[in-house]
Task: structure prediction
Amino acid sequence: MAQTDFAQFEIKSPADRTVMHVLYGLHTVAWASMGALAVVALVVNYIKRADEHDAVYARHHSYMISTFWWTVLWVVLTSPLYLLLLLPGMIAHSIVLLWYLYRCIRGWLRFTEGRPPI
Result:
């Protein structure tokens, strides 16, 4: 059986954890900026994920990226509901917003516990 050389893995610094908390924070409050903060966080997620060697951190970056893109998809798919009346579109987008916030907060809590997102 091959032995793992743990010396080759870098230890995560407090700065790495802070960056991840800031990214989750940007995604969580992105609704207040009409999504602009989410786009900024998304770019940083792509950059950091490419350089990430820690599996848990890489999965959290992927989790935030997929949450963003699924949200964009659902916003686009539910936008035609505004053509029917204002209320169905508002309800659909509110549901999408709540799902987005749920995913952000759930991922953030799991990161705080040191666990990968599900």
